[in-house]
Amino acid sequence: MPKLRQARVSDHGTIVECVQRWWGDSRTPEQARELSLLLPKLFLQFFSGTSLVLQDDADITAFLIGFYAADNDKETYIHFVGVDPQLRGQGTARSLYAAFFQRAAEAGRQEVRAITSPSNTGSIAFHRAMGFALEAGDREVGGLPIHSDYDGPGQDRVCFYRKIAP
After folding, report:
1. Has domain 1-92 been given CATH number 3.30.420.40?
2. Is the C-alpha dihedral spanning 85, 75, 12, 40 positive or negative?
3. Domain coordinates of the chain in residue numbers?
4. CB 93 within 8 A of CB 81
5. pLDDT truncated to tens, each residue of the chain (166 aa)?
6. Total-model pTM
């Protein structure tokens, strides 16, 4: 049975390898490698205390990289979540989010934010099911509020927020 624990800096190489392997079914090897670049080691050097890993006896089976805002004491942000494809659809990501919400609320945080690509319909549906609201954007596409060029030219995003109990 996998156990939830705080992430460690030493998890970085394994998490990068997991991203490249787990997303290999939906992306080319080059695209999966590029996706793993969203997780430089600094996220675990500076935010391991707010990030979570689910691990069985042998391997990491899921992870959540998240952090608390440095500029205010209310917000948190979930940066990246990965779940072994064999565990998807079983509530694994939901349990990681719930654990993050609980820890953040215990730390006095009141809001969680996240973003995704407008084409990532699975992520959009998941966040909505988890109680996230869509933040108004500068335009709409198919009824979806879009933040144009959020991560640079042509890198549009959908932004989510959710209140959590303090």
Report:
1. no
2. positive
3. 1-92, 110-166
4. yes
5. 789 999 999 999 999 999 999 998 888 888 889 989 999 999 999 999 999 999 998 899 999 999 999 999 999 999 999 999 999 999 999 999 999 999 999 999 999 999 999 999 999 999 999 999 999 999 999 999 999 999 999 999 999 999 998 6
6. 0.94
